[in-house]
Give the backbone structure.
Amino acid sequence: MDRLATRSSLFRIRGMSCASCAARVTRALERLPGVVTVNVNLVAKTALVEYGSSIGIDEMIRAVAGAGYEMELEADSTEIASATGKEERQFPAMVVVALVLAATVMALGRGGDFPGKFYLLWVLATVVQFGAGWQFYRGAFVAARRGTMDMNTLIAMGTSAAYLYSIAAILFPAVLPAGGAAPVLYFDTSSMIIAVVLLGRFLEEKAKGRTSAAIEGLLALRPDRATVIREGIEQDVPVEQLRTGDMVLVRPGERVPADGLVRQGFTTVDEAMITGECLQVKKKVGDTVTGGSVNFTGAFQFEVLRVGRHSTLGRIVEIVRQAQGSRAPVQRIADTVAGSFVPVVAGMALVARRSETLSTPCPSEFRGYSLRCLPLRPGAGDTNRHRRWPRKRSGKRSPGSPRRGSRNIVPSWLRAAG
């Protein structure tokens, strides 16, 4: 596809929580005919898409919705940048509560026994599990609805297993391996996992705010309002309402709101935001001015040439954001692995559980199988209490008789019982 016939648009993606989510969004967009490149920024929750004229924005929104995520209409880089730093204050109180309760559960679980200890641990762990950890269940449910699994699924499954096992150990201690002894509880495990993961997400949000500080600093150079001359009347309008061809008046001490061409007046401006030098540059009729530069000496009027993300300041913000979202080749490999990480872990857990079930000896079956562990006598409790049952053979000898020349390893009490 001819790169000259393509355009790039920045979209806001909602619902992403891990690298698996970013990989799914990327695949959903790259499958569409007409899409050239896709760059999903997990930190900023955005997607930079380069596409041709054969595909529309509605088709891309539907494709992302089919993957289970929400993609907003084309957004301005500056608008997304200004909203990024606000997310870091989303749940600090929840993190503190989860950490305090998890530490309390862990301290009480390893401390001495007292009446009602198990039920107190149950209550504290429930607050963490379904209070602070509710977002993991919500994320796992959303992932299940779209037929996928993500890190929310893994956390919800792991912590729920520890939490439910602990409840069963309290209510039905006789049916668990403890066999009527003091039940082994894992409330501290489920609570601490949730607290630590929430702490990690909170630190990630803090990092997002710091990485977007450069963009926010650039955005601070752009004024919020501009004086537009329309039909000979000066109007104070927001910068977002500026259009190409508008005549704008800039007074001494004000910032230039957009890129343009001087049509009337003479002044000096500070273009340190572009050149890095705090020097006053003379501007006369016919010279260009850059949005964000500071007007010093005189008032002048200029014609707007570029606004928004097409201006010099907007392109700088765009370049910085693309640099934040760019991925090295090794990171692309990591994202590919992350896309199947959770299903592989869940599958391995099921296989391990099935293998453990098959390898557990069943006391009610002593014959007909090889490598069965049998006790020498009921209640024997030494390290050498297990022996291997010989493989069952059919034909010439009875099932209970030993092979000629071999040692009879069947316990006498078992032969008598048989």
